[in-house]
């Protein structure tokens, strides 16, 4: 007589789902946190969903282990942070600027070794020495007053080295600063292709000194 096989502890779809949810994936945790902060502070979060992995890859294109120091503005739950580290940037070379206290606690827990500063992007030069290679921004610049946008981009270039790059995405087709302001700051901008695999679709812009 053939002995019966021991029954799996996960015998039904419902019980399987319960078992798998005992250790939630970071992605699920991130989304829950994002939604909660969006409901509690919609003006500061100012996005309907975290950046997609496709957008994160486009934003971090060209980064690697030898990329030097990197600064990120407005990391939120850390989708772009994750992509930066996945490119091989050492954690000790990455500094994050985030205003939201819950996001700050989450980022410190999720990314040990990365410097997380609870402060606005405009204060970057108070915390970071010049010579940064890349500043990556997840801030919703187009939803901000023009003077604030200009201040954030100017703050990025106060810490960037002579050949450094400021990377910014927007949900529109135009750069986050008008042409006359870009010229006044002594910058040139490269307009990337549209990232349709994002909610909403986004476009990546790269700013460098002229």
TrEMBL record:
Keywords: Methyltransferase, S-adenosyl-L-methionine, Transferase. Pfam families: Methyltransf_25 (PF13649). One of its GO terms (molecular function) is rRNA (adenine-N6,N6-)-dimethyltransferase activity. SUPFAM superfamilies: S-adenosyl-L-methionine-dependent methyltransferases (SSF53335). The keyword Methyltransferase applies. Residues 1-27 are annotated as: Disordered. Residues 9-23 have a biased composition (Polar residues). Residues 70-164 form the Methyltransferase domain. It comes from the Bacteria. This is Methyltransferase type 12. It comes from Fuscovulum blasticum DSM 2131.
């Amino acid at each position: 007589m053939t002995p019966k096989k021991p029954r799996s502890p996960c015998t039904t779809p419902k019980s399987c789902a319960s078992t798998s949810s005992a250790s939630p994936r970071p992605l699920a945790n991130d989304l829950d946190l994002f939604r909660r902060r969006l409901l509690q502070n919609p003006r500061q979060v100012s996005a309907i969903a975290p950046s997609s992995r496709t957008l994160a890859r486009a934003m971090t294109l060209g980064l690697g282990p030898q990329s030097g120091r990197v600064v990120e503005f407005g990391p939120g739950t850390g989708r772009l942070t994750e992509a930066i580290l996945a490119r091989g940037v050492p954690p000790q070379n990455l500094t994050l600027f985030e205003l939201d206290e819950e996001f700050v606690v989450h980022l410190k827990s999720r990314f040990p070794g990365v410097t997380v500063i609870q402060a606005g992007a405009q204060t970057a030069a108070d915390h970071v020495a010049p010579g940064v290679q890349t500043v990556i921004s997840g801030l919703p610049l187009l939803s901000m007053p023009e003077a604030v946008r200009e201040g954030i981009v100017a703050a990025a270039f106060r810490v960037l080295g002579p050949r450094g790059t400021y990377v910014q995405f927007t949900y529109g087709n135009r750069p986050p600063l008008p042409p006359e302001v870009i010229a006044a700051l002594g910058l040139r901008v490269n307009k990337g292709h549209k990232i349709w695999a994002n909610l909403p679709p986004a476009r990546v812009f790269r700013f460098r000194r002229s």
